[in-house]
């Protein structure tokens, strides 16, 4: 934020025109529980690793903690780690991580679009073909 001299009028203490104490505005409210959870786990935090401070997301830190607890002999954490790794590897092997499968409604929309394109190409071809001399 800018210095107080630049934001407020020294005589009145009011905010100057085009200057505000809240430059970025009010944060948006999460629309769904999924949005709230994803927003929370992707927030960066400062952690100390090997004596150095680093910025990591909460998700990265949590994954490292689960893996470390599993490696230290915590059976529940070890089982959780193996299950999560197995699922992640299966998803990578299936779709290459792109999520390539379409839902039923998306597939129907794509089929209608392709059918419309084919119809347009057919009409275009018919218009450009020479008339039969018969």
Label this structure with key terms.
flat; 5 helices; mainly alpha; 2 strands; 134 residues
3D structure, described in words:
With 134 residues, this protein is mostly helical. Helix content is 54%, strand content 9%. It has five helices and two strands, in the order H-H-E-E-H-H-H. The chain has a two-stranded antiparallel ribbon with strand order 1-2. Strand 1 and strand 2 form a beta hairpin. Helix 3 (58-71) crosses helix 4 (75-95). The longest helix has 25 residues, at 104-128. The chain is flat. The mean pLDDT is 82.
Q: Quick check: average pLDDT?
A: 82
Overall 3D form: flat
List segments where confidence is low: pLDDT < 50 over at least 5 consecutive residues.
none
Radius of gyration: 29 Å
Say how many strands there are.
2
User: SSE order in H/E notation?
Assistant: HHEEHHH
Q: Helix/strand/pairing class, anyone?
A: mainly alpha
The helix fraction, in percent, is 40-55%
Major β-sheet profile: 2 strands, antiparallel
- Provide the spatial order of strands within the biggest beta sheet: 1-2
């Amino acid at each position: 934020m800018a210095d107080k001299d630049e934001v407020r009028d020294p005589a009145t203490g009011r905010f100057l025109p085009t200057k505000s104490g809240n430059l970025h505005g009010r944060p948006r409210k999460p629309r769904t529980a999924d949005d709230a959870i994803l927003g929370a786990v992707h927030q960066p935090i400062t952690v100390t690793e090997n004596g150095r401070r680093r910025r990591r997301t909460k998700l990265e830190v949590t994954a490292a903690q689960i893996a470390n607890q599993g490696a230290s002999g915590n059976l529940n954490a070890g089982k959780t780690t193996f299950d999560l790794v197995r699922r992640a590897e299966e998803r990578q092997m299936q779709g290459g991580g792109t999520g390539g499968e379409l839902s039923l409604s998306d597939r129907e929309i794509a089929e209608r679009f392709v059918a419309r394109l084919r119809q347009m190409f057919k009409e275009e071809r018919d218009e450009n073909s020479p008339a039969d001399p018969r």
